[in-house]
Amino acid sequence: MSARLIIVTGLPGSGKTTHSTALAAELDAMRMCPDDEFERQGINLWDGDARTRIEGEQWITTLAMLAAGRTVVIEWGTWTREERDELRSAAAELGAATELHHCHAEPEVLHARVSARGREDPPITLEQMHEWVTWFEVPTQAEGGAHDVFRRIESTT
Fold it and tell me: What are phi and psi of 137, to 5 degrees?
């Protein structure tokens, strides 16, 4: 089996978890999602220090899995190109192929989804979602071209 890192990027409610879970099952891959660990440990999703710690632990495991020739799906959001480039570069240093999957939906759809799941305390507002859309660095074709595979997953409902 050839090592492969699949980076699934997108805002909250964009379908990252649904997409990543399906990919991991289809590819017999390990899925890295800090929100799952938050839920297991009873940690608030807004806890930035815990997020940094958990993603760091997951990254160490990811590198070991890639070095062993496995496929790993990272579902961290990765809102900036710099974050995504760092992951891609480290995977490439290990000889792993990389894929970038961008999950996208309009702010109203994102907000409806995160509201329905009710996991955030305090809840995410529509105003926050609109603000986050301006912060999120949408992957360009040029960025996608640096990966072995680039996919955009559009969600309307």
Answer: -90, 100
- Residue 98's DSSP bridge partners are 5
Question: For each successive 10 residues of the chain (157 residues), what is the average pLDDT?
Answer: 93 93 96 90 82 94 98 94 97 97 94 85 87 95 96 85
d(CA 6, CA 70): 11
Distance of alpha carbon 71 from alpha carbon 27, whole angstroms: 8
> Domain ranges in the chain?
4-154
How confident is the model at residue 157, as a pLDDT?
67
Cα 114 to Cα 108: distance, rounded to the nearest angstrom:
10
For domain 4-154, is the CATH number 3.20.20.100?
no
Residue type, position 60, single letter = I
By the 10 Å C-beta count (0-12 exposed, 13-18 middle, 19+ buried), 123 is classed as exposed
**Amino acid letter at 133?**
V
- Pairing type for strands 149-154 and 71-77 reads unpaired
pTM tops 0.90, yes or no: yes
- What's the pLDDT at 20? 96
Q: What share of the chain is helix, strand, coil (3-state, %, to 5)?
A: 50, 20, 30
By DSSP bridging, strand 4-9 and strand 97-104 are parallel
